[in-house]
Amino acid sequence: NRYYMPAWGWSYGTGGWMSHYYWYQYYPIIKNCNDLVTLLEGNEEMADYVAIARTYRAMLYLDLARIYEALYVDEQLSSTYAAQQYKVAGLTVPIVSENTKEADAKKNPRATRGEMFEFIFSDLNSAEELLKDNSHTAGKDVPSLAVVYGLKARAYLWLGGFDEGLYTATYPEVLTGNAAYKKAAEYARKA
Questions:
Q1: What is the structure's pLDDT at 133?
Q2: CA distance 153 to 142
Q3: Which of 3, 19, 97, 186 sees the fewest Cβ atoms within 10 Å?
Q4: Is residue 121 within 8 Å of 174, Cβ to Cβ?
Q5: 3-state class of 91 per DSSP?
Q6: pLDDT digit string (tens) for 93-142?
Q7: Do 61 and 95 meet the contact criterion of CB atoms below 8 Å apart?
Q8: What ranges in the chain are assigned the alpha helix state H?
């Protein structure tokens, strides 16, 4: 079974195939979302499609942020990992949006957790606004307002696992700790 090692948390390192797998699967889809937003933004008749693209993009970045962020581990469990984790603590993946130029993408640094979740919530808030007052009918492959609320709940649930006050000075709208857990419950009920 080729997923045996990843199930145990192996093969995610620099030379591991799993870390490359997600990277090369997600970013082409993100590019498609960016292209759709660029093409249809401002067209009221196509607002549903912009909302769908933003919802998918937020979902993909939420996955990537959770996969690639180095989380704290006790030094007694893994001294090698613990020694290196502080170099990348709080960093997720580079953000490539519809406004990112090719030259900028080549020197695009990893986004902090605050920057990433500010971007994710921006996409989800936009999608929520676009889907709120229309007769959009969702299918199995088309996100609805409930999906937007579910993604917000999932994002806040992830942020709840971090200490309160983290990034509050730079990103006051990105909640952590108990405040994030309360928001997660609110959006789960809405979903």
A1: 75
A2: 18
A3: 3
A4: yes
A5: strand
A6: 999 999 999 899 889 999 999 999 999 999 999 999 998 876 566 677 78
A7: yes
A8: 4-7, 17-40, 47-68, 79-88, 102-105, 113-132, 145-160, 177-190
Q: What is the C-alpha to C-alpha distance for residues 91 and 182, in angstroms, rounded to an integer?
A: 24
Distance between CA 34 and CA 135 in Å, rounded? 24
- The set of residues, in sequence order, having a beta carbon less than 8 Å from that of 76 and lying 6+ positions away, is none
Amino acid identity of residue 175, one-letter, is L
Backbone angles phi, psi at 70, to 5 degrees: -80, 115
Distance from C-alpha of 75 to C-alpha of 80, rounded to nearest angstrom: 8
Q: Which pTM value belongs to this model?
A: 0.86
Structure tokens at 96: 């490539």
Please, what sign has the CA dihedral across residues 64, 69, 73, 79? positive
- CB proximity list for 101: less than 8 A, separation 6 or greater: none
**89 φψ region: left (φ > 0), alpha (ψ -120 to 50), beta (else):** beta
Q: Which two tokens mark 164?
A: 């309160």
Q: Which tokens belong to 92?
A: 């997720």
Cα gap 131→110, rounded to integer Å: 30
The 8 Å CB, 24+ separation contacts for 81-84 are none
